[in-house]
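Standup, Tuesday
Yesterday: got the pipeline producing structure tokens again.
Today: sanity-check two examples.
Blockers: none.

Example 1:
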Amino acid sequence: MRIGIAFDLLPADRAAVGGPDDRFEEFDKPETVAAIADVIRGEGHDVSLLGDGPEFLRKVLDDPPDFVFNIAEGQGVGRCREARVPAVLEMLGIPYSGSDPLTLSAALDKDVAKRLVSACGVNVPEGILLSNTMPMDEALDEAARLGRRVGYPLILKPAYEGSSKGIRGRCLADDHFEAEALYRRLREDYEQPVLVERFIAGMEITVGVIGNGDEARSLGMLAILPKEPTDRFVYSLDVKRDWLRRVDYRLLQFSGDTLDGIATQALSAHRALGCRDVARIDFRLKGEALYFIEANPLPGLAPGTSDLVILAEKYGLSHGDLIRRILNTALERVGLLPAGAVAS
């Protein structure tokens, strides 16, 4: 089979592009694309590297592959940027891995994702969405009202970003003045709405999900713990860039009933958003209350460093095993692999 890989590569000189220094944080290194390509070739497929944007369009029009393994994030700040590659592939009738355009857009818009997941009975932090086009005074008044209603600290984040973009060491506001400063910075730097939420001071948990519909299953779950204990831990971009020194990834040490409950909530979120093939669902656990934070239907797949890869390795799956599981799950879904051929 001829399989193309759709992806975005980190620019060689990110600083020259301008904007915040995390503008391309979601994009992949050449080593990640090469590692995925090697696994797919090892399954006996011919692999072509499609890239993204105009290069991707030219290649799929000139020489369409049989199937596309999609990890393209899309450029810009729009909430539909992750949907562009799947939308083109659907228009051309080329099957692909991962979620469809609607799911990718809904999941990238953190407020929309929260509404959909909340509607199926999963807890979400109370919050508000502040448009980047509303008058500044009106936005700040809305933030102040939220602070009075739910209490401080509040956490502020760009509404349409992944990979913790915009969530830095200083992302918690302890009063209205700090919330104002954070909102002004995020609104200017990221050119999109800002989500303001009650900060859940609890354990950061991430759950891997593989599969589709009622057949989807939890791949496993990890606690992401600060090496220096604090009740104000945020899994921020600064922490992720320095994860070896600053966090521990541990299997959850809970009763079977508790683990089953977390898995059930993750699968509910997966289905509510319409995720396909693979996703990573992030939660906060405070006491016995579990709160959905966000879903990642295009989780990072960098060997040894991406959260889903670390999670899989904790459960005995190598990077190659994980890529094969995702690939074969997608191929089975589109009818290019016999039903039941994917290892459990």
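Example 2:
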Amino acid sequence: MQIRESRVARPASRTKGPISLAAVRAARAGVLAPLPRGQGLIESLQLLADANAAAASSLDLGQMLTAVMGLLTGRGAEACVVELVSNEGFTRYGAPIWPNTEAGRTVADLVARVAETGRPTCIAASFEPSGVSGVSAVGGMSGAVERMLGQRRRLTLVPLAADGRVLGVLTVLSASETHPDLGVLVEVGRSVGRGICNAMAYREAVESSSRREDAIVSLGHDLRNPLGVVILTLSEMLERANLDEQKVGDRRRLEAALRAADRMHELLRDLLELSRLEAGHLPFDRRACSVEALVNDAVALGAPIANAKGLTIRTDVEPNLPQVYGNRNSLLRVLSNLIGNAIEFTPKGEVIEVRAHACRDGIHVEVVDAGEGIAPESLPRIFERFFQAKPSRPGGTGLGLSIAKAFVEAHGGRISAASEPGRGATFAFTLPVTR
């Protein structure tokens, strides 16, 4: 029986995918060997605790299994292999034991047997009793294995089971005097099985999210060109209608259609940009930026709209702030977006404050408005895609705060919102300083 390397699965004659745990219950019931006493008990408990930590150390399957195998080899195992079951066969993590030999082929048969029955197997050259009921001690078929083991080594195979399935097999080869207790190894296998389940669930979630993002990006690109043609055609029709004083009604309808098309174009642009940011594609260079200059420029951009609405924008920037490290245009867009939202939701005659000061983590920037605030049930969702605290308000794509969050986090910072109904809202973000 041959097992291919890494992620290339081999056909399995015995195993046809994940095994029901009904077969594993016998092994569970059989693991009744008492743990060692004294110092041996302490070492076994420490190994179990460390195995649990290693199995929970990463949601990346390969990294997690590497951590577990590294733990076992660091505790005296000569070799350690994990072979996971799939519908096509096995996928191996770790170097094979005795490759290209009769003993290696026997071990492969044993792996398939453990995966099929869910029963742990322990082999020693003397075929000494394992002390655990229900554990196989293979005799006649293991002559080649016995010769490879010699007099002072043991080979143990335990199932990796969780959620009603046998997910794979852990094989450990070590000297008899350093070989972990069989009951302990079975418990290690259960911990690793739970870790495998978590890693597989995480991988499926990531792949599902990636497929969704790919579909959004593909759809967005497909829509941009025809939408551009619509906008261009509407613009030309509106220009001609403006030349004819009798086409007042046509002008109004064309203007409304053009505004709707422009909003669709803005939505597609924001959606594609957010998808690229969340996928880790950061289309900008970074350099040292003055926080004071960023605040001044963002306020200057929002001043005309604020003045027209009768609002005052007041700044409070701590003198001699360190520079932040990032892309100036992206950071300016974040701050302009927050100021624009504050202008939109602040009543006439009120004051908007923009503050910046040094903090333990870098530079802390706040935009404080005097609006009616954000409802408590809306606050936790304020940075979600398409979420709008006031869905009835005209304009806006519901992506501005999501993009601001993505930009800030891409710079190694964090963003937050705080509000009390009737007392305005504060949007704040923190950025690391230049090193």
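Quick observation on example 2: Confidence is low (pLDDT under 50) at residues 1-35, 127-141. DSSP finds ten helices and 13 strands in the chain.
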